[in-house]
Amino acid sequence: MKAIANIVLGLAVVGVSASATQAVIVTDGVSTTLFQDNFEGGTDGSPPVAQIGTWSKSGSPMVESNTTPPAYEGNKYLQITRPAASFADFGKQTSGTLHSEFMLYIRSANFASHGAQVLLRDDALSGYGIILSAISGGSVYYYNGSGYSASNATFALDTWQKWTLDVDLSTDTYNFSVNGTQGLSTPDTIHDSVSDLRYMIFGSGGGTNPQYLVDAVPEPASVGLIGLTCMGLLGSRRRR
């Protein structure tokens, strides 16, 4: 059941700072943004160009500004059609934590099991490490070292949903969520003796020309509220 060909990376990691907003990004899990792209500066029909980090690709993943569906945030998103794949290079990481968030829209047309996959791989691309795979029927499976197992998470077709992925390189474990549902009851191990992580990939390992879209997670409302609160405090001090 190893349907692990043509995997595309695209992670959105959200840091604490306001600079890492409205973007598909990867952070160190604390405050440093390792990779960032919101696709808004991309050219329709062309590969994406990241603001932080670099993209590499296999096939022809491209930025699009179609209206069906509209982008989840802004006007553009990344379109992945098998066998295309994109690798978000956030630099070799050997310790600490990683956090990512991104929006996925998996089209029902031509969809088949493994038609949408998210993967984290090492510097040498020598092991599969972490793979999340969308399976027919709405289940999200994860790579267990020799095949796939069903997780607690499910996904829906033809709608935008938020995915998150958290990795602890000190314990070589990870967990994820889809639309607010935690994927694993306990964190799973990073497989294939992978000792570092460098690439986050969005890709496809099954079906005939399945297609899905990747977009940024909008800026959390809490960031704006914090700003408003600070402004209110300043105004209060001025009135005294």
- Rg is 18 Å
Count of helical regions: 1
How many structurally independent domains? 1
Mean pLDDT, all residues: 83
CATH topology: the name is: Jelly Rolls
Overall shape: globular
Label the structural class.
mainly beta
CATH architecture: Sandwich
- Provide the CATH superfamily: Exo-inulinase, domain 1
Commentary on this structure:
- This protein has one helix at 221-239, and strands at 24-27, 33-37, 54-58, 62-64, 77-81, 85-93, 97-106, 117-121, 130-135, 139-143, 148-154, 160-168, 173-178, 181-182, 188-189, 197-203, 211-215.
- The protein contains 1 helix and 17 strands.
- The model is unreliable at 1-21 and 221-240 (pLDDT under 50).
- It has one domain (24-239): Jelly Rolls, CATH 2.60.120.560.
- The termini are far apart.
- With 240 residues, it is mostly beta strands.
- The strands form 2 sheets. Strands 1, 2, 4, 5, 7, 12, 13, 14, 15 and 17 form a 10-stranded antiparallel beta sheet that branches.
- Helices cover 8% and strands 40% of the residues.
- It is globular, with a radius of gyration of 18 Å.
Task: Offer a concise description of the structure.
The protein has 240 residues and is mostly beta strands.
Question: What key phrases describe this protein's structure?
Answer:
240 residues; mainly beta; Jelly Rolls; ten-stranded antiparallel β-sheet; seven-stranded antiparallel β-sheet; 1 helix; 40% strand; globular; disordered N terminus; disordered C terminus
